[in-house]
Amino acid sequence: MTTLLDEVRTRGFARLRPEESLARLRLPAPLLADFAASWQRLETDAFMADGGRYRRRRIANFLALPGRPDHVRGLHRPHFQAVVHNTLNGGVDRWFAPVEDATIAHPACAGLLALGREVADNLHPDTPWFVEMHQFRIEAAAGTPGLPTPEGVHHDGVDVVLIAMLARRNLRGGETRVTDPKGAELARFTLDGLLDLAVMDDRRVMHGVTPVEPADSALPSSRDVLVLTWRKA
Known about the structure:
Blueprint: H1 2-11, E1 13-16, H2 18-25, H3 29-37, E2 43-44, E3 55-64, E4 72-73, H4 101-105, H5 107-123, E5 129-140, E6 160-169, E7 171-173, E8 176-179, E9 185-189, E10 197-201, E11 206-209, E12 212-214, E13 221-232
Antiparallel strand pairs: 1-10, 2-3, 3-4, 3-5, 5-13, 6-10, 6-13, 7-12, 8-9, 8-11
């Protein structure tokens, strides 16, 4: 964990390639495939102010208290972002379908929550955390690109963000950009492969993802990611 923490402290973000993430989580491939399969059951995001129907999602929230390693799931509630953090969809309560119980109970979910929590606790010791979990699927079709971050490069308005790739299918694009608060680019990379992930200090850096389009216009095209955020409760 030292390298990951050092990178986040030094640069404001870090990336773990799939082999590094898998080594930390120590989960067999069949279990991870079962976790990734839950993205097949997401529901359409009906709150896109641009009128788009290209995004599917589910959400959940947790409380994590100092000195207690677990994340306790909270009652289902809407997702809210201030307009300053989401100029497209901010300023309203957005009710999305809850993450399925079996997905929450999966060892991969617990492992990724623990990974991000360790970073959050080291950056801000003795902090109670409100944690949100977002399952996203972005779909694209010929002539109709999908927008992973339609609001553009942004802060999430939290303390720590973990973004993990689950699957890319028949895609071009989807490049992650990390910038400083003034918009100067710090890094550009494409999350590709099961549990290729990035961890970000949301106070120090902004992030965004370029549009996606089908590599083969005749085939289905989608991008599945998990986003976890930690905010002081």
